[in-house]
Design brief:
Distance between the termini: 64 Å
Largest sheet: 4 strands, mixed
Shape: elongated
Strand content: 25-35%
Order of helices and strands: EEEEHH
Radius of gyration: 26 Å
Number of strands: 4
Length: 91
């Protein structure tokens, strides 16, 4: 691999302000803002709208939107045709 073609991969802090949660990882993301981390070092910080701490799926607050199956919903709406698998058409 050519070294001058690779993006800069460095430590970055991602912060979810809604949940008050931040984590340090490595990324190619950049930011003009910085934050002092627990180890005393200063890292670029990227604010995100949602993370595993605030996402409904990971927090257990997810809602089930489709409570009945797609087929049952279709049959309830349009009714069952009552025809067999051969389609019931004329030959």
């Amino acid at each position: 691999m050519q070294q001058d073609k690779q993006p800069d991969y460095h430590p970055v802090v991602f912060r979810d302000r809604a949940a008050g949660y931040a984590f340090l990882t490595r990324s190619t993301a950049t930011s003009d803002r910085t934050i002092e981390w627990d180890d005393g070092e200063t890292y670029p910080v990227v604010d995100v709208e949602i993370s595993s701490e605030s996402h409904p799926f990971y927090t257990g607050k997810a809602r089930t939107v489709d409570s009945e199956g797609r087929i049952a919903q279709f049959e309830r709406r349009y009714g069952s045709t009552g025809q067999g698998s051969d389609g019931g058409g004329a030959a």
